[in-house]
Design brief:
Elements (H helix, E strand, L loop, with lengths): L15 H21 L5 H10 L1 H7 L5 H9 L3 H11 L8 E7 L7 E7 L8 H4 L3 H19 L5 H18 L14 E3 L1 H7 L5 H7 L8 E3 L2 H13 L2 H16 L5 H14 L9 H12 L1 H12 L2 H23 L6 H11 L5
Parallel strand pairs: 2-4
Antiparallel strand pairs: 1-2, 3-4
């Protein structure tokens, strides 16, 4: 097979599946861009606002200013912990990673899980190792200086160094990735009182309360020693450094929606220095991806209405029916299953009530 002429890697990706994929991508782009020409739809308005860099530049940091002001006004560690909790639902990372899911040891019950976190770079080794890792840490230092300068702070280089020192201290108390593979060792039930006793120096109640996650009977802590170490690092770090750190987390999360200088700085770090990508995708492609990721159901409905004929729907239904029938036959012949398990599996695989 010949390489596709529009493939920058020169890889061999020709053939019917890729042709269909390209055609579908072109159809989706057309649907979204046509919607953007007629204000009023969610996906069209989102796309139009994302590619309108003139308006984005005119707004500057105005949309983020209320959050940045909250960070700047948090005069002590407890208040800043509460601000960090309020920002967490908006995907602004903080000191710890947090998740909500089914309890591994109490099926049907939902539980909050707390894990080590706080690092912007992907992995503790990038802070602690030499060699190539130091090149990426240097790129991160440049990014911090640039993003702080763009946001209007002074002495940006010194403040960037202080942020790196803070994150390096966090990396030093993190468990290595290999230590996280033991499920039993990663399942530790704590109350808030336990957290306050075992991981002193961090205002757990303010942080959890800001997320409305306080008052839970228990929390699952994946790395107790790491959380204790991080809490101690937090407690001994000057409040101004922590404010700068959280300020950068806000700006990093939303850089793609800020004036181009912010987006370019973010891409220089995460796209080029860390991922090796030389150029950003064109803005329209980024916009299509954004809309597809955030409003996939809207895009899917529009695509089905525009391109899926009744005949195609019938073909798809028959294909699904054939796949289910083949799976049912395999389950019926699976000698390793108990009769009860086989019945349950076949019931779950069937699109119709048993």
């Amino acid at each position: 097979m010949a390489a596709r002429s529009d493939d920058p890697t020169g890889s061999s990706l020709d053939g019917a599946p890729i042709t269909m994929q390209d055609r579908t991508a072109a159809d989706i782009r057309s649907i979204i861009q046509n919607a953007a020409s007629r204000p009023g739809s969610r996906m069209g308005d989102l796309y139009a606002s994302y590619i309108d860099q003139t308006t984005i530049t005119a707004h500057g940091l105005a949309k983020l200013r209320p959050w940045l002001n909250q960070v700047a006004a948090a005069a002590d560690h407890s208040r800043l912990a509460a601000v960090m909790g309020r920002l967490a639902p908006y995907d602004v990372g903080g000191l710890f990673a947090i998740g909500i899911g089914e309890d591994d040891k109490a099926p049907g019950a939902m539980v909050v899980t707390l894990k080590q976190g706080g690092l912007v770079l992907p992995g503790r080794d990038l802070y602690l190792a030499g060699g190539g890792a130091s090149v990426r840490l240097t790129a991160y230092r440049s990014y911090l200086e640039r993003i702080l300068t763009l946001s209007g702070v002074d002495t940006a280089l010194d403040r960037a160094d202080a942020i790196i020192a803070f994150e390096t201290a966090l990396a030093q108390v993190h468990r290595a990735p290999s230590d996280a593979r033991n499920a039993d060792a990663s399942y530790n039930a704590y109350t808030v009182t336990d957290l306050e006793r075992e991981a002193r120096g961090f205002d757990w109640r303010s942080w959890l309360g800001a997320m409305k996650l306080d008052g839970r009977p228990r929390y699952i802590v994946a790395q107790p020693d790491a959380l204790a170490g991080e809490a101690a690092v937090w407690a001994r770090t000057p409040i101004r450094v922590l404010q700068d750190y959280l300020r950068v987390r806000v700006l990093t999360t939303y850089a793609r929606y800020l004036p181009p200088a912010f987006a370019d700085a973010r891409f220089a770090l995460f796209g080029t220095a860390l991922a090796g990508t030389a150029e950003q995708p064109p803005r329209w492609r980024q916009g299509v991806s954004l809309v597809t990721n955030l409003l996939g159901d809207d895009v899917g409905r529009a695509y089905v209405a525009a391109h899926l004929t009744p005949e195609a729907r019938g073909q798809a239904a028959r294909l699904v029916k054939n796949i289910v029938a083949a799976l049912d036959a395999k389950l019926a012949a699976a000698a390793w299953m108990t009769p009860t398990t086989r019945i349950r599996a076949r019931d779950e695989a069937s699109p119709d009530p048993p």
